[in-house]
Amino acid sequence: MLVPEETKAMLRMRDVCARTGLTRSAIHHYIREGLLPKPEKTGRNTATYTEEFVRRAQLVKALQENTHLPLAKIRETLDGVPAGTETNIDPERFAGVTRTIADSLRLSSESEIERADLLAMTGLKPFELDALTAARLVESSAHNGTVRYSPLDARIVMAFARIRDAGATAERGFIGGPAIVRAYRHHLTEIARTEAAEMVRMAEALTEIDMDDFMEKTSEPLGDLVAALHRKALVKAVTELLGNGRR
Questions:
Q1: Would the pLDDT of 116 be above 90?
Q2: How far apart are the C-alpha atoms of 61 and 117, rounded to whole Å?
Q3: What average pLDDT does the segment 83-107 reach?
C-alpha cells in the first residue's frame, strides 16, 4: 500500500533533534529568530516537521559551527537559497564554501590596523575618523583598550583620505554629506544582498573549484566592473542634470 506523502513527511521534535543534533531549546530559538520556518501545529504543545525543515536546521548548525557568523547573517545567507533546494545541499561542503567566500571578501589574510596607525597613514584628524564611524561608513573594535579597524574599514578610510586630499570635503557638498552617505549605505547594501544571494545559489557548484584561486582572480575585475558601472551611471546622471538646466 502506498503511504501518502504528507504521512511520510511527518516528523516529531524528537526526530528533528536526533537528525540534527540540536536541542529543543536551540530549535525553538532558531524559529524565533526566523532561521527556521514555523512548524505546523497539531495540538497545543505538538507540531510536525518536514524534511526541508530538518535540512535547513542542519545548514544553520553547520554554518554556525564552521563560519561563526551571527545568526542574523546566517538567516540572510540561507534566505538566498532557492526554495525547495535545501535537500540537495551538503551542509558541511556548503558551510566550507561559504566560509571561504566570506574570508576572502573580508580580506582575512590582512591584519587589522590600530587607530593611531590609521590616523598616521591617512593624515586624518581624530574627529574626521570619528565622523566616518558616526555616519556608519566604517566600524571599529576594541581589543585590550586598543581601537582597531578591519582591513576593509581601513581601505574605506584611506580612500576617503585620498578623495579629501584632492579637495573634496563635506562642506563643499561631495564626500561625507548626509545625502550621499545615506544613498551609498542603502543602495550598496541592497546590491550586496543580491550578490550574496547569487553566491549562495552558486555555492554547490562552487564546491567543485579552487575557491581561493577563484576569489583571487575575480576580486579585482569585480571591483573594476563595479567602479566602471558606477562611473557610467554618474556620467549619465550629471548629463541629465545639465540637460535639465541645472548648473
A1: yes
A2: 38
A3: 68
CA distance 101 to 218: 11
Question: 130 versus 244: which is more confidently predicted?
Answer: 130
Cα 33 from Cα 58, distance rounded (Å): 16
Which of 14, 78, 71 lies closest to 52 in space, CA to CA?
78
- C-alpha distances (whole Å) from 122 to each of 72, 157, 168, 216 are 33, 8, 15, 26
Q: What DSSP designation does 111 have?
A: P
Cell representation of residue 166: 584632492
Secondary-structure breakdown of the chain: helix, strand, coil percentages, each rounded to the nearest 5: 65, 5, 30
Confidence (pLDDT) at 179 = 77
CA-nearest of 57, 68, 46 to 19 is: 57
Asked if 42 contacts 48 with a C-beta cutoff of 8 angstroms, the reply is yes
- Going from the C-alpha of 135 to that of each of 131, 176, 182, 188, 191, the distances in angstroms are 6, 8, 9, 15, 19
DSSP E strand boundaries for the chain = 40-41, 47-48, 113-114, 141-143, 146-149
12 burial (CB, 10 Å; 0-12 / 13-18 / 19+) is: middle
Gap between the Cα atoms of 113 and 93, Å rounded: 32
Q: Is the pTM above the cut of 0.85?
A: no
Q: Map residue 156 onto helix, strand or coil.
A: helix
